[in-house]
Input
Amino acid sequence: MNELKYIGRKFTWTNNHVWSKIDRAIVNVEWMTTMKQMEIIVMEPFISDHTPICLHLEEARKEGPKPYRFYNYVAELPEFLTVVEQAWNTTTKGQGMEKVWQKLKAVKQEMKKMHTVEFKNVRETVQLIRRQLQETQEQMHDPNYQIGLADIEKELRGKLEKWAMIDESIMRQKSRSKWLKPGDSNSAYFYACLKNRTSMNHIKSLVDQYGKLLQNDQEVQQEIVGFYKKLLGDAAE
Output
């Protein structure tokens, strides 16, 4: 179970002497994997002692380019050390730390190739192999099936185990759930944790100095730009 991100008032109940957050929105793994990213807006109570909370589902957003992220499974590949050594030994320009930066950049490019060329769309690959394995096992129900199907099934089982472990390792790293061990088939849980953490870290709305809730991209952008313009103006004075 995960608690959703809250924005707005810090408390949801009061008796005019005590303020407390007793109202919470808690969802399970199935909800997190099915629904879009979401957050809870704590609204104004008006004359009630309880504050209503509103579930806000995120609308479609345009995503920009994402920075490269090193995945732990890459270090387990047989060719990993060789690729890193070759990239590090490439001739680079500059002196001192500039030369080190150029070498690290070359290593990063090779790491990106190892991930994107051979291991692109890992989740789709796992689903494809699962379908192929299911079809092969269904064909083996026929008593007159070909002997070669047993070898095909064995090969598909090996591929599925390999790619499922890679997929789970990636999702575990993204979700930062270190208390679960790879191999427990927790990809769905890792994906739910990832969505919840992304929702927690992503700024989808702001509250300005007048207490107004800003929810769309244009309002948030204007508030941030205006804040820093004012900050720079005060510093110049």
